[in-house]
Specification:
Length: 316
């Protein structure tokens, strides 16, 4: 982790968003439409990403070398709670309750695709495989929150009760299956012959995910933009939460991989999946969600390298 700097982080995030730009221009040029994006999203969420997760856990998750593996899901839960607390404090000054869509955009981050792509792009050396597994383990906590709290916030007007059944989705089931197999000592049954084709398909998940993200952002409507709320989401998500995480890491004695995952997840922009959830359930203020996603993704190109650089200088 000592190789982290503003320059290496900036190069990594630029490479990632260069892939997203391809999806953006494919939609802008009308080469791909909304149906194409839905197909890519379906393949990524239901097939490719679960395969990637499964292979990475089978190959890199070693409980004997990761004694506090159960603590990684708590990372994203704590960061989501920090985003909600920061939002409550900001709105507390005006004595208003934060709108549900604002709370979702400011507290639920892009915990899966971009952190994994960053781990691939950063010069982590021999620690890369362990970082992949650690990031994937942390996604469990995020998915539990996204498919329960996230869906509830975006549908509370019509569905006052939180539906826990939404938590059971293909990526989460893939994580749980792989973890159970490893804990039971069954990873030896998965030979290279079995894992190689699965791994090849899984490796395509990240590239296709960025095409989907870029395409989704290209469909965002900026005619009715709401500057003040969007600015609030950007400041909470990209400044306040990373500052909180960086300050906490200066005092907490965490291992290098766990502290890196904390910092990486804390710097993430608003979750793209919120746009999919909003479209599926017909959320009234979906355009605000899309605007929050667009601007947090756009500006994290600057904030993410800054905070990872500070982390690399001050923490490790």
């Amino acid at each position: 982790m000592s190789t982290l700097s503003f320059q290496t982080s900036a190069i990594a995030i630029t490479q990632i968003f260069a892939m997203g730009a391809v999806g953006y221009f494919l939609v802008r040029r009308k080469v791909m439409n909304e149906d194409g994006l839905k197909l890519l999203a379906f393949l990524t969420v239901n097939i490719l990403f679960p395969l990637f997760i499964f292979v990475q856990i089978i190959l890199h998750f070693d409980p004997s070398r990761m004694p506090f593996w159960w603590g990684y899901p708590l990372i994203n839960m704590a960061l989501i709670a920090a985003g909600m607390a920061a939002t409550a404090i900001v709105f507390g000054f005006s004595r208003r309750r934060p709108p549900d869509e604002f709370l979702a955009a400011s507290s639920l981050h892009n915990a899966g695709f971009i952190p994994l792509l960053m781990a691939m792009a950063l010069p982590l050396g021999a620690a890369a495989g362990k970082v992949y597994a650690a990031v994937i383990m942390s996604i469990i906590g995020f998915d539990l929150c996204l498919w329960s709290l996230g869906v509830w916030l975006l549908t509370r007007r019509d569905r006052p009760r939180m539906e826990l059944k939404n938590m059971f989705n293909p990526p989460l089931l893939s994580m749980l299956a792989a973890i159970i197999i490893v804990l039971a000592g069954g990873q030896g049954f998965f030979t290279e012959t079995l894992l190689k084709p699965v791994g090849i398909m899984g490796d395509s998940a990240m590239g296709i995910a960025m095409l989907t993200i870029g395409g989704n952002l290209a469909m965002t409507d900026f005619i009715r933009i709401r500057p003040r709320p969007v600015t609030g989401v950007v400041l909470i998500k990209l400044v306040l939460v990373p500052m909180f995480a960086l300050t906490a890491l200066l005092f907490l004695r965490l291992g290098p991989i766990m502290s890196f995952v904390v910092m990486l997840q804390a710097c993430m922009p608003t979750s793209v999946t919120l746009s999919i959830i909003g479209r599926h359930y017909g959320t009234k203020n979906q355009e605000f969600i899309n605007q929050g996603i667009f601007f947090t993704h756009l500006l994290c190109v600057v904030t993410l390298p800054v905070f990872l650089g500070l982390y690399g200088k001050w923490v490790h």
